[in-house]
Each structure stands twice: as structure tokens, then as C-alpha cells.
Q: What sequence folds into this?
């Protein structure tokens, strides 16, 4: 069911039944399936309620993005824009953003450091970190709260620079999660699931039309689950999202919504990479030890006392008013807060007798141990944003315009508090760790070593899509951001890296960065030309840009000369060039896309001349490639969502050891697919396949020292299966099998290659959907 955000609609909504849809991948995938779809997508009408008879449901295929900044349908948008609809999320039982993003190619995940290992938003896309370019309904969403999908209608991924839409951001694009909204009909749907790894989940989606122009919607979630193939890792979550719409079908519409989400669990600190294919340890090699046995992926190296508590609270009020036919003004105000409180035990392989990694006295693997590092993290993010926009369709002479213009104010803060007293755990048995091993000295207290960063932004933007001729469209947009970032931090004085004590005792907490500020103006733009040889096809060329100022999305400014986050540095700049084509085929059931792209990033590095002290800003990286996509229905019973990305990455100008190297976390080839087929009599089968090529963790043009643990991950395929049965009008059953071949693979790797997160083992889940 597609309810477009930023466009409050009144619409009829048929009773929820699990409609199987169909899909597949021609020659590369088996026709495995059918779609268990909760509700067919109704037509949306802003001014009045209209019932459309005999409308074809497009299933996986979306016709438009939720944001009014995209003034054309997806078919006529001159940029790669992938939409993952709720139907796909429900069939796959994708419960968080990380699982949902498996449906688009060119996206990888990495382990964080310093307590960030279990964050679910360490996203790399088209060669660059995109963790700071995640949005909810077009408003920036920061922090490391688990991003659940229970209140998500669809997820939209813009590939390539998108500074004209969202301001500062990653050169690789942006990810927007569009939430569910009330509509003018009744819906009651309960989804219950249970599966292996002691996983249980319940979600409720209820909508009530309270009057001719009023509707109330409630989404809720309760979850408790482990991770298939991982001992002791647990997660418990609760969420609730009520929303109220007033004035549906009238010229003035108001929507107020609230979302509260809590997760509490035992995080995953990873598994040592020792013994995996591609692992190498120089100290061991010197004494003739090679071909080491890998540890079991199920091993847990943390403590039963580890915890991770995350939360998200946000409230939004949206007001829309139709000034006249085709002219609408909108105002959106959002207040939000996300936070994380975590104690995690990380690990790394230790094969020495304690005198250092080069002192290998323990030649017997039975005596080898794994180090265990206790890591504390506390972080709080807040957001206040107000957006006012105007959308208008009009003509100037023979030119038809679709205009979107607006003013946006954003205030974001990030506070990190230092703590001590996590305690210590002795190194554990490398091959048989014990999560019940004693923790000594645990007494968590706040140290006063804190940091606080904030960014205020005032932005003006305008987009216009001009129909020059029935076959030619020109799309352009500009966004001007005036920003100011402030950063304050304290640290313990003394020591090798601590600030000067100024006469205070060593270890005293003193300011390390006081009142650091960076301000400036960012300009993002896009320009695209569309040629439509036929009504349902387009060929386009486009250019877009983005910038990332000092502080980026972390709000952390640096006093170190030459650091890219020093306030004196200029923003890094990205340009994305793209040519492509999009076609609605098979009676507009199926959207086929192809695009050649090239993203170039400049000025993302700095250096200091040792003799003169002069700072030089430099750096040039390039990612180019091809992306193919297919989404929709091949036949009314066969549906498909698939994508393939081929990337070539290169450092054109970097440090001596980087120039000419490939970018890290960027597979040359990646492929994703999901297909379902409706057999009849209520039965649907389906499944998916994903491929990720080898990924390097280090940017280097030379063979690194053999002590570098894992330099690359291995390529892998993962296959999933799906079966659903429509029992009756009010009940359907769904059975998912994940990782059918029980493939062992690296889902994410940390920066030094010493530990990794194993991909989930083979697992199963049974889901019942009840409409009442």
C-alpha cells in the first residue's frame, strides 16, 4: 500500500489480504515465487476521495518518490532512484534498515570501532560512507538507534550526489525512510512471526476513519530475537507510532504523528578472523605456522553482562493547504531525539605469550587466546527542523512547469559522554571462549570527558521540471545552505596525547576543544535532460553535486592542522555524472533501468608541510560503473525486484601509499534479487539471491605488511526461499528460509581486519497475517 509522504491524502483502502504478486529474473534467477502482499496499492488523490475500479496493482513497483522535491515520476527522474516498497519488506520479513538495503546493489556494511560494532547504520554506498545521509520523511536522522521498519511504507535510495535535495551529505547519495500515514478507510492487520534462533515478533497496523475527513492510524511492534548462528547475541524491541490526519479530502489537511522506539539487547563484538581464507600473520609465519584453523562463527567473545540500549523519540506536525488547483503549500515541523547506551566487549586474536604480537612462544594452538576489550559508549542526538515548501504546476507560454521551492531550518546536536569502569576480562580461549568468565573492576562512572557538537542550517531550494516538448524535459534544482557548526570537548590532561595540564594534576579533565566553530555556504545543484522516444520510455543525462563541510555528520571539529575536520578547511566536493534509460514495459507493470555513472570527489584530504607549516588541501577519488534494475511484474502472477552494480573505484590523488589504489568497502560486482510466483489456489512460492564480490578494507597501492590480518573479504552468494498460502480472506501464512545453503561469509569487517561479524546462518521464520 503506497501512501506518499509530504502529501496527505484521502483514499479508499481495501481490506487487508495477503495478495501474492509475481516476479523473477530472466536467465539469471529461477522463478521461485510469489508475493505475500498485505494491501493492494490504491490511487492517491489530494483534493477529494475517488474510487478507481479495475486498477492494476503494481506490487513491488513504485511510480513516484514520497518527497515533493522530486517533481516527476520515477520514469522521468534523470537519476538512479531505487524504491523498496512495503510489499517487499513484508515478504522478506526485513525488520530493519540493514536487512532492507539488501534489495539494492552497491551497498556494503562495515564494523565500527570503539563500541560502534553493533551499530546498524555503518553503510557504505558506491564507494563512500553514507551513514550520515539517512533520513526519515526527508528530515535527517542521526545517531545509532536501530532503524526498525514496522512504521515504514517504503525506502528510497538516491544514488549519486544529492546535495540539491538534502544539503550536506555523502557523495554516494542518500537513504530516505518514508513512514506510514492515516488514510480514509479502515484497516486492521496483525502479523505474528516465530522462528529459529528463538526469534519472535508481532506487529500491528490499524487504521480507522473517524469521520468524512478524519483518520487515525496506529502501528506497533514487539520483538525478541537472537541471531542465527551466533551464541548469546540477543535483541528485544518495542515500538509504537500513532498518527492522526484531519481534513482528508479538503483543501487544508493536517497530520500529526509520534514514534517511540526502544531496543535493549546483548551486542555482538565480533569474531576473530584468524584462519579465514586470506588471513595472514607474519609472526606465526616466521615460526612456520600456516593454515590455522578458523574459530567457529557461533563463538561469543563478550560477557553476559554486555548491553546495548537504543531509543528514538520523534514527533511531527505537517500542514498542507491547496491555494488553488495545482498549487500547494506545506509546512513540516519535527522534533526528535535518538540515543545509545552501550557496553560491548570487542575481540581480536592473540597468539603470543603476552610479550607482544611478535613474540610467539605459544606454538600450540590449544594455548592461543583471544583478547577482550571492554568498550563503553553513550551518545545522544537531537533534531529540530522546520520546512516550508510550495509546489506548483503552471505554464509559461508553451512550457509546462512542475515547481518545488522551499525554506528549511535545521538544528542538530550530538552529545557524547565519557565513562570509565567497564572492567576487564582476561583473554579467553580462542577456540572455546566462555561468556561467563569473570569481569573484574566493573564500576561504571562518568569521567567528565565529554564532547558536544551542533550544526545549525538555513537552506533555500528550488526545483523545476520543464516540459520543453512532449518528448523533451529539462529538470534543474539548486539548494543554498548556510551552516554553522560548533564543537566543545574535554579530555584528561597529560600523557602522550592529552592536552596540557596548565598546572593541574595529570589526569584532570580540562577543555581540549573550546568553542571551535566552522561556518560557510554550501551550494548543491542538479541538471538533467530527458528524451522520451515513447510515452513510457526515457533516455537521460544528468549532473548533480554535493558538499561535505568540516565536521560532516559527526559534528566533530579538529584543532589539528591538516585534518579534514579542521574549521579552516574547505568543504569536500562531489560531482556525479550519469547517463541512463528507464522503460515501463509489459503494459507498464515492469520498470527496467540502466545507468552509467561517474562520481568524483575532491578536497577530502589535508597535509602539512613539515618545513613551512603550510596546509594543503587535496585529494581526488573516482567511482564509475554501471547499474541495472528491474522491478514490477513480468506477468500478473510473476513479480521481480532485482539489481546489478559494476563499480570501478580509484584514488586519483592521495597519499603516496594511496594514489592509484582501489577504494575500500567497494565490491566490483554486486547483485540482488527477489522473485515470487503465484501458483493459484492461494499458494505462492518465491525466493532471492544475493552476490557480493570481494571487498578490500584498506586503501593501498602496495602489498601491505603480512601482519595486516584480513586485507579482503571473500566473495559470496546467499540464497533465500519463500512460501505463502492464503488460508482465507482474513488469514494468510508465510514461511521464509534464509541462507538456504548455510553459507559462511563475512557480513562486515572491522578496519584492521582482526575481527568480523559472521553472516547469519541458515534459519527459518513462520508468519501469520490476520485481518480483522
A:
Amino acid at each position: 500500500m503506497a501512501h506518499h509522504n509530504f502529501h496527505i491524502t484521502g483514499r479508499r483502502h481495501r481490506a487487508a489480504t495477503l495478495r501474492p504478486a509475481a516476479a523473477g529474473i530472466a536467465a539469471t534467477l529461477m522463478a521461485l515465487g510469489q508475493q505475500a502482499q498485505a494491501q493492494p496499492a490504491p490511487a492517491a488523490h489530494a483534493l477529494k476521495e475517488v474510487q478507481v475500479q479495475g486498477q492494476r496493482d503494481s506490487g513491488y513497483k513504485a511510480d513516484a518518490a514520497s518527497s515533493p522535491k522530486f517533481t516527476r515520476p520515477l520514469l522521468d527522474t534523470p537519476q538512479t532512484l531505487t524504491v523498496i516498497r512495503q510489499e517487499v519488506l513484508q515478504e522478506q520479513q526485513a525488520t530493519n534498515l540493514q536487512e532492507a538495503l539488501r534489495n539494492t546493489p552497491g551497498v556494503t556494511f562495515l564494523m565500527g570501532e570503539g563500541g560502534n560494532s553493533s551499530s546498524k547504520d555503518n553503510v557504505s554506498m558506491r564507494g563512500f560512507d553514507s551513514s550520515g545521509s539517512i533520513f526519515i520523511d526527508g528530515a535527517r536522522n542521526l545517531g545509532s538507534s536501530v532503524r526498525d521498519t514496522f512504521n515504514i511504507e517504503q525506502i528510497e535510495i538516491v544514488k549519486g550526489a544529492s546535495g540539491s535535495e538534502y544539503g550536506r551529505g555523502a557523495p554516494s547519495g542518500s537513504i530516505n525512510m518514508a513512514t506510514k500515514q492515516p488514510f480514509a478507510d479502515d484497516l486492521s492487520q496483525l502479523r505474528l512471526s516465530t522462528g529459529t534462533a528463538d526469534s519472535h515478533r508481532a506487529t500491528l497496523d490499524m487504521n480507522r476513519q473517524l469521520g468524512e475527513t478524519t483518520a487515525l492510524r496506529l502501528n506497533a511492534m514487539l520483538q525478541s530475537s537472537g541471531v542465527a548462528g551466533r551464541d548469546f547475541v540477543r535483541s528485544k524491541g518495542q515500538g509504537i507510532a500513532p498518527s492522526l490526519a484531519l481534513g482528508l479530502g479538503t483543501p487544508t489537511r493536517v497530520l500529526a504523528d509520534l514514534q517511540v522506539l526502544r531496543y535493549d539487547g546483548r551486542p555482538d563484538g565480533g569474531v576473530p578472523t584468524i584462519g579465514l581464507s586470506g588471513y595472514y600473520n607474519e609472526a606465526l609465519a616466521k615460526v612456520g605456522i600456516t593454515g590455522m584453523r578458523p574459530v567457529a562463527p557461533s563463538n561469543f567473545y563478550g560477557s553476559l553482562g554486555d548491553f546495548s540500549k537504543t531509543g528514538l523519540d520523534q514527533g511531527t506536525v505537517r500542514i498542507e493547504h491547496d491555494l488553488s488547483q495545482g498549487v500547494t503549500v506545506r509546512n513540516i515541523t519535527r522534533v526528535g531525539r535518538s540515543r545509545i547506551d552501550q557496553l560491548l566487549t570487542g575481540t581480536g586474536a592473540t597468539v603470543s605469550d603476552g610479550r607482544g604480537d611478535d613474540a610467539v612462544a605459544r606454538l600450540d594452538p590449544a594455548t592461543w587466546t583471544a583478547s577482550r576489550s571492554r568498550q563503553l559508549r553513550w551518545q545522544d542526538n537531537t533534531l529540530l527542523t522546520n520546512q516550508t515548501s510550495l509546489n506548483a504546476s503552471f505554464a509559461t507560454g508553451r512550457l509546462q512547469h512542475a515547481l518545488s521551492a522551499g525554506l528549511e531550518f535545521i538544528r542538530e546536536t550530538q552529545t557524547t559522554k565519557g565513562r570509565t569502569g567497564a572492567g576487564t576480562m582476561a583473554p579467553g580461549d580462542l577456540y572455546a571462549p566462555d561468556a561467563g568468565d569473570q569481569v573484574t573492576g566493573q564500576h561504571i562512572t562518568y569521567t567528565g570527558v565529554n564532547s558536544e557538537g551542533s550544526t545549525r542550517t538555513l537552506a533555500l531550494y528550488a526545483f523545476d521540471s520543464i516540459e520543453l516538448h512532449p518528448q523533451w524535459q529539462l529538470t534543474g534544482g539548486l539548494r543554498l545552505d548556510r551552516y554553522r557548526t560548533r564543537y566543545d570537548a574535554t579530555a584528561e590532561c597529560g600523557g602522550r596525547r592529552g592536552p596540557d595540564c596548565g598546572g593541574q594534576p595529570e589526569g584532570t579533565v580540562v577543555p581540549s576543544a573550546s568553542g571551535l566553530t566552522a561556518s560557510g555556504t554550501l551550494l548543491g545543484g542538479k541538471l538533467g535532460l530527458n528524451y522520451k522516444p515513447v510515452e513510457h520510455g526515457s533516455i537521460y543525462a544528468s549532473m548533480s553535486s554535493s558538499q561535505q563541510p568540516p565536521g560532516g555528520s559527526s559534528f566533530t571539529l579538529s584543532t589539528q592542522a591538516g585534518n579534514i575536520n579542521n574549521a579552516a578547511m574547505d568543504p569536500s566536493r562531489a560531482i556525479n555524472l550519469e547517463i541512463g534509460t528507464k522503460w515501463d514495459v509489459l503494459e507498464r507493470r515492469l520498470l527496467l533501468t540502466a545507468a552509467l555513472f561517474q562520481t568524483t570527489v575532491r578536497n577530502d584530504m589535508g597535509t602539512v608541510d613539515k618545513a613551512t607549516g603550510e596546509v594543503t588541501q587535496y585529494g581526488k577519488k573516482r567511482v564509475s560503473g554501471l547499474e541495472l534494475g528491474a522491478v514490477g511484474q513480468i506477468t500478473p502472477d510473476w513479480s521481480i525486484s532485482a539489481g546489478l552494480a559494476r563499480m570501478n573505484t580509484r584514488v586519483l590523488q592521495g597519499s603516496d601509499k594511496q594514489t592509484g589504489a582501489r577504494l575500500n568497502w567497494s565490491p566490483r560486482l554486486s547483485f540482488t534479487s527477489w522473485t515470487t510466483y503465484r501458483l493459484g489456489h492461494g499458494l505462492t512460492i518465491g525466493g532471492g539471491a544475493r552476490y557480493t564480490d570481494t571487498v578490500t578494507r584498506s586503501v593501498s597501492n602496495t602489498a601491505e605488511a603480512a601482519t595486516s590480518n584480513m586485507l579482503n573479504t571473500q566473495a559470496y552468494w546467499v540464497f533465500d526461499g519463500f512460501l505463502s498460502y492464503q488460508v482465507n480472506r482474513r488469514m494468510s501464512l508465510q514461511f521464509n528460509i534464509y541462507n538456504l545453503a548455510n553459507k559462511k561469509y563475512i557480513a562486515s569487517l572491522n578496519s584492521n581486519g582482526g575481527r568480523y561479524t559472521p553472516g547469519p546462518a541458515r534459519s527459518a521464520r513462520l508468519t501469520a497475517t490476520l485481518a480483522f
